[in-house]
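User: Structure tokens for this complex, please. No commentary.
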Amino acid sequence: MTRKPHADPRERILQVVRSIPRGSVLGYGEIARRAGLPGRARMAAKVLSENNDPNVPWHRVLRSDGRIALPEGSAGYETQVMRLREEGLSVIAGRVRGARPAADIDELIWGPTH
DNA sequence: TGCCTGACAAATA
DNA sequence: GTATTTGCCAGGC
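Assistant:
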């Protein structure tokens, strides 16, 4: 069955974030790209900032350099670090290590193309 | 209409 | 490896 993309770009971004496997991380730019919105990394950030759905693993979203986007010391930062470590990742000085490469997620989102 | 801000990215030093 | 600068797109005022 064809998994047709949601009308709202905002929902598509959330959909991509929801599709990130446990133990993997993705950058804002990559998310926007996979959501069909190249160059809209900031919009992805905005959407996640507004998002309040616990079903969205926003903590798996990092900046392109592998660092946590939130300001160190903020509540969101602490939550993100805690959740990432719960998934077996290590966070040192705002850097996330041990994350598995999430390159095959396209098919998890739009459905297997094989 | 024009300016400022933002959970960003890429290039450069 | 880090620190700065520039570019980008949307949204708010």
